[in-house]
Specification:
Blueprint: H1 6-23, H2 30-50, H3 58-83, H4 99-105
Helix pairs in contact: 1-2
Length: about 110
Amino acid sequence: IMTRLWPLFLMVLPFALLLYGLQKPVGRKEVYTVPSVFLILLAGFFLLFSLQIVRVSFRQFMIVWWPISFIFLGIVLIVTTILFRSDDSYQDYSINESYDDRIIDN
């Protein structure tokens, strides 16, 4: 039975990281929540094949659907960038201020 439930063990650490990220009072929560949600979803995906809910083997599935995984990963990166973009990262510098002055000031 342990050979079929191994993806559940992959969910333990990301779930703990997700809880930590959600309860963190200050700072960038997405640093903890986005990777943990991704790892939980990945473990759930492996669990589908491990419990044979999906009747196709993982190898056959990846041979056919591997391009979709890159498209999905790209969409996830775009969405997380849009959702968690902080407005503080864009500072308003005057036009007369040179690039070197900005580096020295920071």
